[in-house]
Amino acid sequence: MRDKGEFLFTSESVSEGHPDKVADRISDTVLDAFLAADPYARVACETLVTTNRVVLAGEVRGPETVTPEYLIHLTRLAIHDIGYDQAGFSWRNAEILCHLHAQSSDIAAGVDSAGNKDEGAGDQGIMFGYACDETKDLMPAPIYYAHLILRRVNELRRSHDLSVAGLQPDAKSQVTLRYVDGKPVGATSVVVSTQHDEGLDQAHIKHLLMPIIESSLPPGWMPPENEIYVNPTGNFVIGGPDGDCGLTGRKIIVDTYGGASPHGGGAFSGKDPTKVDRSAAYACRYLAKNVVAAGLAERCTLQISYAIGVSHPLSVYVDLQGTGTDVDEVKLEKTLRGLMNLTPRGIREHLHLNRPIYVPTSAYGHFGREPNEDLGTFTWEKTDLVPALKSAFGR
């Protein structure tokens, strides 16, 4: 993102009831079920959802007590929790098929530790992490506020608050911010589309959502009313998997930084932490966030690369985008590698990833969330490396 001049930048978010997010939720439900039974289970679960049908597919290695019947039961509970009990998609009568099978022995051999060989990466790939000082959670402002609007709508819907009566689980948002010299100064447009009961008109839904939009943005940031678009196509009664097919991993930009940072291309949901697509992306965010939290830069992009079956990263790259405060990026790369073991095993152990903590990540972004000590969630959002980073750079 540019640091000079004036420009507009847009990010979108989708709710937990969006078809792709329903698929992500179910895949992470499967993952958590295996990790609850065995912290070292291997899971790569893909989910497809469509009109009254769910298909689970992929590869697993874990206890036989996690049966297909149990996973189908958990899938129904997940759909119920999201709020789908509609004619075209209901937790009660959706057909759920489980086609999970044993993990490839070739992949397992590359990942497993044996003799002098440490645990290898579950696949090749590049992963990125990003942090900036635009919000208190060190996230880009457009995706932060796009998520916040939908999270507040969803919290009210789940609590059966009458202020959002008639709104259903499927929703999308989009926030466009104006930047001046690299800093966000206000919103120029906001889009919110939400599924609703039959009979609610567009004007009524806009009336319901306007207070939520205004309270989610900083004071003075509201765009003109004619630049606030609510259900711009009009009716949105048929939604969720009945309105559109959903697939795991199809909202990777929503899951990360809203397009403000590069993306390696790998999805997160349904993958156990031996898959560096997920665990190394978490490590990249953790390191980038600590760099910014330590005051070493206003923005930090970090890239790591791996080869399948190889334990150590092939490269670690840091780009402070010209915002570093007298920080040598090569020294910073070496310092970060010294502060965190970036092998798959090292990441898992440092961030305590071998636990059933992934369902909460499946909607409203994997980053910019509050770490919960009691639940052990979002450990990659901690800033516990700040003292060591400050010391290393004489701050």
Describe the overall structure.
- The protein contains eleven helices and 13 strands.
- It has helices at residues 19-37, 68-82, 105-111, 141-158, 202-216, 240-243, 252-255, 276-293, 329-339, 344-351, 386-392; strands spanning 6-14, 42-50, 53-61, 85-86, 89-90, 95-102, 125-132, 167-180, 183-196, 228-230, 246-247, 299-306, 315-319.
- The strands form four sheets. The chain has a four-stranded mixed beta sheet with strand order 1-8-9-10.
- Helix 8 packs across helix 10.
- The protein is flat, with a radius of gyration of 21 Å.
Overall morphology = flat
Largest sheet: 4 strands, mixed
Question: How do the helices and strands follow one another from N- to C-terminus?
Answer: EHEEHEEEHEHEEHEHEHHEEHHH
- Discrete helix count: 11
* Mean pLDDT level: 94
Order of strands side by side in the largest beta sheet? 1-8-9-10
**How many strands appear in the DSSP assignment?**
13
Which percent range fits the helix content? 25-40%
Q: What share of residues are in beta strands? A: 15-25%
Radius of gyration: 21 Å
Distance between the termini: 27 Å
Strand-pairing-aware structural class? alpha+beta
* Unreliable residue stretches: none
